[in-house]
Design goal:
This protein is an alpha/beta fold. It has three domains: about 80 residues, Arc Repressor Mutant, subunit A (Orthogonal Bundle), CATH 1.10.10.10; about 80 residues, 3-Layer(aba) Sandwich (D-Maltodextrin-Binding Protein, domain 2), CATH 3.40.190; about 100 residues, 3-Layer(aba) Sandwich (D-Maltodextrin-Binding Protein, domain 2), CATH 3.40.190. Helix content is about 40%, strand content about 25%. It is built from eleven helices and twelve strands. Strands 3, 4, 5, 6, 7, 10, 11 and 12 form an eight-stranded mixed sheet that branches. Strands 1-2 form a two-stranded antiparallel ribbon. A two-stranded parallel sheet has the order 8-9. Helix 1 crosses helix 4. The longest helix is centred in the first third of the chain and has 27 residues. The radius of gyration is 25 Å and the shape is elongated. The two termini are about 40 Å apart.
Length: about 290
Amino acid sequence: MRYVVAVAETNSFTRAAERCLVVQSALSHQIARLEQELGAKLFERTTRRVRLTPAGAAFLPAARQCLEAAERAAVEVAAAVGEVRGRLSVGLIPSVAAVDIPGALRDYRQRYPQVRISLRVGASDDLVEQVKQRAIEVAFLGLPTTVRPEGVSCRELARDRLVAVVAPDHPLADEPAIDLRRLSSEVFVDLPAKTAGRAQSDLAFSAAGLTRDVAFEVTNADFLARLVGQGLGVAMLPAAYVAQLSGVTTIEVVDAPARVEYIIWSPDSRTPAATAFLRVLGVPDAEAAV
């Protein structure tokens, strides 16, 4: 099954053999034996390409599920004898400030070196859905104070106010503080519309009866700050996150909105690797957190 999945994902017997660390003849032989046992060809092979047959396309999802189940079984056995291994998938927004993610991963890696970790950066709304679908196990979000994650277990990590961020030579750079009305006349660089990060600012300006011009939409907060530094517009970002940036000037906004940072995880089940990560982060009673 592992060989079939590798061939399907690489479209090559040669690359699949390299991935599986076996010689190509052995991989081809094992797949041929499986095809004989199943009574159907799984792949069509030509001199130019390899592709799944209809039978292979039907077999592939079940093969993946079996491999995942086997891996979970091995992980659970290891956990039963006190060893944490397997995989951990973590999602995060680019502007996480409440937790030192690299530091937490360093501590986690030192304690559990057998775990393989993947990080996915995305918008808060998307991360919530991925946790619900179990595509990722733990995620770090930033949401407006009027919104709370639904359908997942969560714990509030911190609250922070947004501040204005401008280029060092911007006319507002020397101001100690401004309000949303003064800021609304500026051209903005912001996160994409309808994302949770963008909603914090949109709701604040709307509540104040103000409109603004968002000329640039950027998915990455670091690159957003770089555009601001070049004088292409101003932005509003969490104060704790802005403290990590260079090449921009920060201004207090007296009527600025706030955001809440959360950590979330699946309420149904967690792998030993995810449970251990929550423990490293100081969330040992994760089952009781809501």
